[in-house]
Every structure is written in C-alpha cells, then in structure tokens.
Amino acid sequence: MSSMKFYRPADETTAERAYRELREAAQVFHHEFWGAENARFERERLCFINDAALRMLTVPEQAVSPTVDLAPFYRDYLNASYQRHLDYNRTWWRMNLRILTLGARAFLDRRRPGRRGSQRSKSV
C-alpha cells in the first residue's frame, strides 16, 4: 500500500496541523495493523495447508484436500482473531471521531472572518 501525501499549506493553522497529523497517524495505524494481520493470516494458512498435506501422506483414509478443508481454518482463524479485530475497530472508530472533530475545527478556523482563505462572500 502506498502512503498518501497530505497537503500542507504554508499558513497551516494549529487545528489544520492537528487534523493532518491525526490523518497521517491513522494511515500508519491501518497500514501497520493490516500488514501484520495479513502476514499472520498467510503464515497460519500455510501451516494449516502443510499440516493437511502431512495428514494426507500419513493417514490417507482421513485425508481431505486442503482446498476443501480451508473452511474450518477460516472459521478458526476468525474466531481466534475476533478480539484483535474488535480492538482494531474500536481504535479506528475513536480515531475517526477525533478526525471528524479536528476536521470541523480546521474547517471553521479556516473560514473565520478576516482569515486568508475565508469563504465568506462580500456584500456590496
């Protein structure tokens, strides 16, 4: 996954900087979590397939093709990783709420009267 580059205006306000930095931190958080999760999943899946292949060699009458036998692996993996995914989702939602709060603050800060970049129209 390639990382996004966030725009950094020359006159960035404190609220805008906090908003941008939290968005960058969220991106790093997602990248690290899913990189580790995908590596863990692949490692455990390969172990499961190797164990199934070994069972096929040692006890042919109990052998089931690893492609057919992956459903129990997926179920067990999801059950085992439930708490980890729950913690990830809780952290993600807290982070998203904080990002929304900071984004609104940055938006309002940028549009204050007299501030460069204000979107207020001038009446004649």
How would you describe this protein?
It is a single chain. By secondary structure, this protein is an all-alpha fold. The chain has one domain (14-110). It has three helices and no strands. α1 packs antiparallel against α3 (82-110). It starts with 13 loop residues before the first helix and ends in a 14-residue tail after the last helix. Keywords: Membrane, Mitochondrion, Mitochondrion inner membrane, Transit peptide.
Number of strands: 0
- Bin the helical content: 55-70%
Please tell me how large the radius of gyration is: 25 Å
- Count the DSSP helices: 3
Percent of residues in beta strands: under 5%
What count of domains describes the coordinates? Answer: 1
**How far apart lie the N and C ends?**
50 Å
Rounded average pLDDT:
84
Features:
single chain, mainly alpha, 3 helices, rod-shaped
SSE layout:
Layout: H1 14-58, H2 70-80, H3 82-110
Helix pairs in contact: 1-3
Membrane topology: Peripheral membrane protein
GO biological process, one term: intrinsic apoptotic signaling pathway
Subcellular location: Mitochondrion inner membrane
Brief digest:
It is found in: Mitochondrion inner membrane. It is a peripheral membrane protein. It contains three helices and no strands.
